[in-house]
Amino acid sequence: MSLQENWNLLQRELQELSYSEVTIIAVSKTKPIELIQEALELGIKVFGENRIQEGIEKFLPLREAGKTFELHHIGPVQTGTLRKLFGLFQFTHGVGSVSSLQALSKQSEKSKQNLGFFLQANLTGESNKHGFDRQSLVRVLQEVKKYETEYLRFIGIMTMGPSNEDPILTRKVFQECNQIRKDCCPQAKLSMGMSGDYKIALEEGTDFIRIGSKIFGTR
Ligand SMILES: *Cc1c(COP(=O)(O)O)cnc(C)c1O
User: In which domain, by residue range, is 149 found?
Assistant: First the structure.
């Protein structure tokens, strides 16, 4: 199917299921700039990239050419490279440690550019996954405001389902994430769900879905 067909199908599906408030982040990682240009022409405005450098290489020329879009960073935030987020990216979903949160906070005052951030939660118990476990997430959420600056705003919580894509476990993880939101910070947004599990994420109350292959084709 073409990009246009994929996009129309996804949009229609969200409308029919009454999730028209949910934001689709079109994840264009590994895909060429020509395809992103085509997406812009179709009216896609919100994109996601997991590698900062790749995001800059593809999206900076588009920004300089006067295109309007919103760019989300969805990969892990690392202290060594996070300064590059400021300017081009409006959001990052991958804050997974207190030290990177501190560094982000400090850098935002130096860069003087707006950035919204999501704390990444690892609720599957898989040790290979980036992010806060439940206990540390709850602790950070209690004091998250203190890391905000004039430029850096807390937006919400991002999480991923288990690597084995088991639908029952996926639902449990998304439910737990929504419960933590309700208990700790009802105003926070949720970023859950990818091509394989976005329907479960929608049912469990997500605000953002991050869709790559279902829009741009397999990688
Ligand atoms: C690649 C990626 C996505 C999109 O994955 P698809 O399965 O292609 O939809 C979503 N979120 C994160 C964090 C990713 O790295």
Answer: 3-216
104 CA to centre of ligand 1 in angstroms: 23
Give the C-alpha separation, 20 to 42, whole Å: 18
Distance CA 39, CA 154 (A): 28
Residue nearest to atom 12 of ligand 1 (CA): 74
Which atom number of ligand 1 is nearest to the Cα of residue 194?
9
213 lines ligand 1 (CB under 6 A): yes
The rounded Cα 158 to chain-centroid distance in angstroms is 6
97 CB near ligand 1 (under 6 Å): no
How long is the chain?
Answer: 219
Residue 191 pairs in a beta bridge with 158, 208
Task: Indicate if ligand 1 lies below 6 Å from the C-beta of 212.
Answer: yes
Ligand 1: centre distance to CA 27 (Å)? 6
Rounded Cα gap, residues 173 and 122, in angstroms: 9
> pTM of the full predicted structure?
0.97
- How far, in Å, CA of 188 to CA of 206, rounded? 11
**How many structural domains does the chain have?**
1
118-155 pLDDT, tens digit per residue, is 999 999 988 878 999 999 999 999 999 999 999 999 99
Residue 199 neighbours by CB distance under 10 Å = 14
Whole-angstrom distance, CA of residue 158 vs CA of residue 23: 14
Q: What is the CATH number of the domain that holds 166?
A: 3.20.20.10
For ligand 1, the distance from its centroid to the CA atom of residue 74, given in whole angstroms, is 8
